[in-house]
Amino acid sequence: MNGRVLLPLDGNEHGRRAYEYAAELFPDATFVLLHVINPADANVPVDGAISTFPEGWYEKRQDRAEQVFAGIEELAAEDGIETTQAVELGKPTRKILDVAAAEQVDHIVMATHGRQGVSRLLLGSTAETVARCSDVPVTIAP
């Protein structure tokens, strides 16, 4: 498949596995690498209706995104796969779906954390929600 594949990455080892799987399935595609910065991770205190991020929080997350991309970019260069990058701020599920539409991707390949039991029921799964709500095929990397 020539086309565009969205690869959401959060910096864990599962993302690398998802890249390797996507590279096997779609070696001729352009990969859109996405890192979503989730404001919920900031543990922001709320003052009335106004909340603020701790100083440097967003910049640290941006730096982390660059590190995540660098590792995958290196692998992609070795594999001859073209990539583009996107960093978004917001709820991961919503941003993955938004970027998929905006970038007109043909497929999404993503990892899952493999939660089980009560944790899975309480927290839900970004991968499962994306798979249910996406307008394009979604592959969950093994």
Automatic annotation (TrEMBL):
Gene3D superfamilies: HUPs (3.40.50.620)
InterPro entries referenced in this protein's UniProt entry, alphabetically: Rossmann-like_a/b/a_fold, Universal_stress_UspA, UspA
Residue span(s) of domain UspA: 1-141
Pfam families listed in its UniProt record: Usp
Highest taxon above the source species: Archaea
Record-linked PANTHER family: STRESS RESPONSE PROTEIN NHAX, UNIVERSAL STRESS PROTEIN
Similarity-based family: Belongs to the universal stress protein A family.
Protein's UniProt name: Universal stress protein
Organism, as annotated: Halovenus salina
